[in-house]
Write a structure and sequence with these properties.
Elements (H helix, E strand, L loop, with lengths): L19 E14 L2 E8 L2 E7 L6 H6 L5 E10 L14 E12 L16 H6 L1 H4 L3 H23 L3 E2 L16 E4 L7 E4 L4 H9 L4 E10 L10 E11 L3 H19 L11 E3 H8 L13 E2 L1 H4 L5 H6 L6 E7 L5 H13 L6 E8 L2 E5 L1 H6 L1 H11 L6 E7 L1 H18 L10 E8 L1 E4 L4 E4 L11 H5 L6 H5 L2 E9 L2 E8 L4 H10 L4 H15 L6 E4 L3 H8 L30 H6 L11
Parallel strand pairs: 3-5, 6-9, 11-17
Antiparallel strand pairs: 1-2, 1-4, 2-3, 4-5, 7-8, 9-10, 10-22, 12-13, 13-16, 14-15, 14-16, 17-20, 18-19, 20-21, 21-22
Length: 600
């Protein structure tokens, strides 16, 4: 017989009745029923009920057991007595009558129990993550994560992608978030950086003549934590393709992402064909470039209805050339109580308020109610109702001013209305592409043109037209789009991607428009420029976030629920005690000195 087990704790069935077996695992729960001890024995594979009564030679040892002790149990499989079966357990028809117990690993007093679903402070959960990971829900999340990665790998390889590994120690990049720096012992005063992403390496792989690359890549960024962003490190499905258009990337990526969500959705509907939504349209319709398409609310521009109207606040705003009024329909929100509640919410968000009209029947006709309707007048209110297709019992809210400024409030307001009115179908996965991002934007503070998003994307214009651009033609430059794209699922950005700028002349021109001297480009990206100048194919790619995909699939709202050993909000590993002090000897070897921050 094996030293520790003949079966796992999830393996025994009715066919095993009468067999002598050996199990090893953790004491999940111990119950004393009138002198008979029931021990739920748990391992990675499942749970089996073991029984010891006073006639059992192991009874005295069984009485000493406590939760989370690790034990070996020998005994005979028998059928559970009638009425005590547990159909929710695969092993629920049988139990093991204990003949012998060996304590393999006693456990001290637990800082948090494994049995049950009680909530515990994050600090406790992270400090004792190994206990937290024994709990069924979190344990299953991590197993789902592994299965998702297996599925992604299988799907990528089926499409002809080959997996490569890129360096972890590399050079610091001036773009993006802060780097994690690693001091060099053999090059005093110089530093490596952990890669924020394998961006330059994967482009160099294409320049090297490989055609379809991917990896499940670790990325490191010294940035603050958010619910959908882990501090320190995260993983992404990094991929790149040569000789491709934007549509080629979509055709390769969509089946992988859709297939993974379908495989693990538990039957929830998944978008079949991802719609393409231009960036400007995403902002005007949804108030976000990460729209949650499960929310049926679509905002509309109603400026013309308010222009020159009796509602003077909006009419004055519209006298400005950049002024606009957007409407947020609220189906089923047609009560003064709800509208007042939304107005109070807006004030809590730092807004002066949230104008509204709600609609009700009056002598058989649907009419608008509230101060905005009273000042707007019946004719314009009816035109508004008709444009938005509103009915009795509906409402509409308004945001006004310059769209570039109020859009950051309009999006959350749309989401709040959808949440409050239960309009969002939480049991589906709605995916889309956001496309046509602006290449540049105007920096009002510094009175200059900046890159809007990724500076290494190809402009969506012919090479000849782009190279001929007048750097002083601000309007034409600001109207230029880049071949960039995002995948969004349920309001969560999964990734950004682009067709890369593979032409040194186009890259130099692009940076010159943003005010960068050619010498800066040479200094910071000399290796990439040299590679591109020696025969680079058109190429593009994307990098969906693994952590975010798993978070959505598992129905979690925080990435820490799908990561094995996450850091806390302050980028601390409470389990391992990182970051930690190091010895003076280690610092001397690295030729560096720790300088404490100045006291304020």
């Amino acid at each position: 017989m094996h030293r520790y087990r003949t079966h796992t704790c999830g393996a025994l069935r009715e066919a095993d009745i009468g067999a002598e077996v050996r199990l090893s695992g953790w004491c999940h729960r111990i119950r004393d029923h009138g002198g008979v001890l029931f021990i739920d024995l748990r391992d990675h594979y499942g749970l089996t009920q073991a029984v010891a009564d006073p006639d059992s030679p192991a009874f005295k040892v069984a009485e000493t057991l406590r939760s989370e002790w690790v034990v070996r149990v020998d005994g005979k499989v028998r059928r559970r007595p009638d009425g005590t079966e547990n159909p929710e357990l695969p092993t629920g028809a049988v139990e093991v009558y204990i003949r012998e117990i060996e304590v393999l690993g006693p456990a001290g007093e637990l800082p948090m129990p494994v049995f049950g679903d009680q909530e515990y402070p994050e600090e406790t959960r992270l400090k004792y993550r190994f206990l937290d990971l024994r709990r069924e829900h979190l344990h299953q999340n991590i197993m789902t994560r592994g299965a998702v990665i297996d599925s992604i790998r299988r799907r990528m390889k089926a499409q002809g992608f080959f997996e490569f590994q890129t360096p972890i120690l590399t050079a610091s990049s001036p773009e993006g978030a802060r780097d994690y720096l690693v001091p060099s012992r053999v090059h005093p005063g110089k530093f490596y950086a952990l890669p924020q992403a394998p961006q330059q390496f994967k482009q160099l792989i294409m320049v090297s003549g490989f055609d379809r690359y991917f990896q499940i890549a670790p990325c490191f960024r010294d940035e603050d934590a958010r619910a959908d962003r882990s501090p320190g490190e995260f993983y992404q499905l990094d991929l790149e393709m040569s000789f491709v258009t934007q549509q080629d990337v979509f055709d390769a990526v969509e089946p992988v992402i859709r297939g993974v969500f379908e495989e693990f959705s538990g039957g929830k509907p998944v978008t079949k064909t991802f719609p393409l939504i231009p960036y400007a349209q995403a902002l005007s319709k949804y108030g976000s470039d990460k729209p949650d398409l499960r929310n049926p609310i679509v905002m509309q521009d109603v400026s013309e209805i308010f222009r020159g109207s009796g509602f003077k606040i909006f009419a004055r705003i519209l006298e400005s050339p950049n002024g606009a009024v957007w409407a947020i329909p609220a189906p089923g929100g047609g009560s003064r109580a709800f509208c007042d509640r939304m107005n109070s919410w807006a004030q809590g968000e730092g807004q002066p308020g949230l104008g509204y009209i709600f609609f009700a029947l009056d002598n058989g006709a649907v009419v608008g109610r509230g101060p905005v309707a009273n000042n707007l007048g019946a004719e314009r209110t009816e035109a508004l109702r008709a444009q938005l297709d509103l009915k009795d019992g509906d409402a509409v809210f308004f945001v006004a001013g310059e769209p570039d400024k109020f859009v950051k409030f309009a999006g959350p307001a749309r989401t709040k209305v959808g949440d409050e009115l239960n309009l969002i179908d939480k049991n589906r996965f709605e995916l889309c592409w956001i496309v046509d991002f602006p290449m540049y934007e105007w920096n009002e503070e510094e009175k200059r043109i900046d890159f809007s998003h990724n500076p290494f994307s190809m402009p969506n214009a012919s090479v000849e037209d782009f190279l001929a651009l007048d750097p002083n033609d601000r309007d034409k430059i600001l109207s230029l789009k880049a071949i960039q794209y995002d995948i969004v699922c349920n309001g969560v950005e999964l990734s950004s991607g682009a067709i890369r700028n593979h032409r040194p002349d186009v890259m130099k021109k692009a940076f010159a428009i943003a005010g960068y001297d050619e010498s800066v480009l040479e200094q910071k990206f000399g290796g990439m420029l040299r590679a591109l100048s020696l025969g680079a194919p058109p190429h593009g790619g994307i990098a969906p976030g693994i952590d975010r995909i798993v978070m959505l699939i598992c129905g979690e709202e925080n990435l820490r629920e799908v990561v094995l050993f996450p850091m806390n909000q302050r980028a601390e590993d409470l389990l391992m005690g990182a970051p930690s002090d190091v010895t003076p000897k280690q610092l001397r070897e690295l030729h560096i000195r720790a300088v404490p921050p100045e006291r304020s």
